[in-house]
Amino acid sequence: MRILIIEDEHRLSNVVKKGLVEEGFAVDQAFDGEEGLYLAESEAYDLLILDLMLPKIDGLKVCRELRNKKIKTPILILTAKTKIEDKVKGLESGADDYLAKPFAYAELKARIQALLRRSHNEGDPILKLDDLELDPAKHIVMRSKKTISLTPKEFAILEYLLRYKNDVVTRTQVTEHVWDYNFDALSNVVDVFIATLRRKINKGFPKKLIRTVHGVGYKMK
Ligand code: CA
């Protein structure tokens, strides 16, 4: 899953980014509202973390512009403003949740997971297919209750495929949602990762769980 942090406090942005990258998220940063709006419109994000007081274009305006343009990416507002009317204004502008600074990283993380679940209409926090289970919050993958050890990128790809298990997922989608802005999309790295991932989750099991749809991409089955 790929997240854009729109926050002008570099230190805070970097701390949040570091935490999220360690969790396996692909993370981009924008340090003012204009850059944030541009990236949110042009790149494929699964969630936006948006500060309210930003240079150039303020957070509420960024939020409204995105919703006016029918961009439905979940938005978590992060701000020092804690007055009730500010929270209401944020939610009325189309944001999905609100977290006041200073915040505990654990709470941010829990809210991100909840928003991702909500945006995918997932009631269960564990993603499942057949005997395969993936826990996005705890970073655990199991098949028939046996833990499978994956690298953060393999984990991120499997999480993405499981969130879209009813669809065929293209290589471009995987690239856009698992890697950040600096990734070279021309390489065949996705295929390499899928091959290793397949080997790891299918080893010792008669049922093979990632199907290649030739010329299109992949499907969990
Ligand atoms: Ca700010």
TrEMBL record:
Write one Pfam family the protein is assigned to: Response_reg
Which sequence positions fall in the DNA-binding region? 124-221
Occurrences of domain OmpR/PhoB-type (ranges): 124-221
Spell out the SUPFAM superfamilies in the cross-references: CheY-like (SSF52172)
Q: Do you know which InterPro entries this protein is assigned to?
A: CheY-like_superfamily, OmpR/PhoB-type_DNA-bd, Sig_transdc_resp-reg_receiver, WalR-like, WH-like_DNA-bd_sf
Residue ranges of every copy of the Response regulatory domain listed in the record: 2-116
Q: Does the keyword Transcription regulation apply?
A: yes
**Where in this protein does the record say 4-aspartylphosphate is found?**
51
Gene Ontology terms, MF aspect = phosphorelay response regulator activity; transcription cis-regulatory region binding
Q: Which UniProt keywords apply?
A: DNA-binding, Phosphoprotein, Transcription, Transcription regulation, Two-component regulatory system
GO terms under biological process: regulation of DNA-templated transcription
Annotated Gene Ontology cellular component terms: cytosol; protein-DNA complex
Q: What is this protein called?
A: DNA-binding response regulator
Give the classification, highest ranks: Bacteria, Candidatus Roizmaniibacteriota
